[in-house]
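Chain particulars:
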Amino acid sequence: GPYVKHLANVAVTSFANINRLMDEGNKARTVAATDINETSSRSHAVFTIILTQRKKDSLTGLVAGKVSKISLVDLAGKERAKDTGAEGKRLQEGANINKLLTTLGIVTHALASAKKKGDFVPYGDSILTWLLKENLGGNSRTSMIASSSPAQINNEERLSNVRYADRAKQIMCEAVVNEGPNTK
């Protein structure tokens, strides 16, 4: 798959470990001031927890297991350069954020309007959609929360956000239990 800067897989055995890693990840996120937000998030964040349960059958001695995956995703908000006053590096960050959000919208639209399972969905068009492929249209149950500012200046973004959420509601996934012998 594509290269993701600072992507790490870490084995944990307790909620305290998970909490510590989430704190570290949040502290590592890039934030910067823009004309409309003092602490504007300059990146998306994906935190995935893979839970593995193994059970040994006392009669056969075989080990079977179940695997669950939980992805917590925090997307940076879409920005209009003229509103943020961004220049240079901040302008480029905003452009990258918007590009990934646009690609997510295209993938969501493709999934919502897919007539059959084999229809092409452009997951590979961005690292974000590639990482979230299973969550968006695979073996999953997905919940999304769309939030918007009530400020008058954000009317256009709010409408876009509501339209995105409406399309996302139309995505149908069938989740099945991931279990089998020697599940890793």
